[in-house]
Predict the structure of Antigen receptor.
Amino acid sequence: TITKETGESLTINCVLRDSICALSSTYWLRKKSGSTNEESISTGGRYVETINSGSKSSSLRISDLTVEDGGTYRC
């Protein structure tokens, strides 16, 4: 669990375990607290994705956090 204040930034890392998956086909999902539905996150604006093909990892940086950004993230 990571706790941040509104206005701060957060970087979430994702390492691909399956060599069949391509980094270019990864996507990010968020399940808001108290919800059973996951929503796809569109990158751009406050959501910036960085891909590191050497380490087969991807990261999602969320800047200027709001209460609406709260939840569980996965890639």
Remarks:
- Residues 10-74 form a domain with the Immunoglobulin-like fold (CATH 2.60.40.10).
- The beta strands are 10-15, 28-31, 38-41, 47-52, 57-62, 72-74.
- The chain has no helices and six strands.
